[in-house]
User: Fold this.
Amino acid sequence: KAGVTQTPRYLIKTRGQQVTLSCSPISGHRSVSWYQQTPGQGLQFLFEYFSETQRNKGNFPGRFSGRQFSNSRSEMNVSTLELGDSALYLCASSVVETYLGTDTQYFGPGTRLTVL
Amino acid sequence: QQQVKQSPQSLIVQKGGISIINCAYENTAFDYFPWYQQFPGKGPALLIAIRPDVSEKKEGRFTISFNKSAKQFSLHIMDSQPGDSATYFCASMDSNYQLIWGAGTKLIIKP
Assistant:
């Protein structure tokens, strides 16, 4: 099976602009989560989508939004970019692993966003 | 907000030695504790995870253990190799069954 894919891999934007990141989950996975990763803050949860509905949301401002399509592909949007939004944005798709009894997350390679 | 405290922040181990990373959690909705390994330029990859009904799990050189009364879990890497050099993340589940992540441990194995 193909892994989680994210596009684009690298982005450079300027303050005030907006950006859309895309994530294609592993085939058959219906849940997609988004994370922001920065050197000092580790992995910060943004939101999770399941069957086109936002199921969980982290503590990020409303400038960060997302959606999921019927084919489980997901997009994340950041409006009015700030310098502090520079980070690696990771997408993870998940499926219930029977032997663990819960979802297991599989990460994509991430999109490196640089805000100038 | 719930936290997972991961230590140490960085670790240098000689080749062949034992690498030990510890995590402490506050509360968890479900006894599921995964460890992820991340190489530079890559997304985190699931390394090993422990299920609710066991206190220890071993896969090759990697062992995770879980102490419910102390609310702690740890990763041991035996016979550490240069290829194990990476950043390791632990996680636990909060009351919303959402993963809460440790800050990461940068492991360097010296040849």
Observations:
- The CA atoms of residues 23 and 97 of chain B lie 18 Å apart.
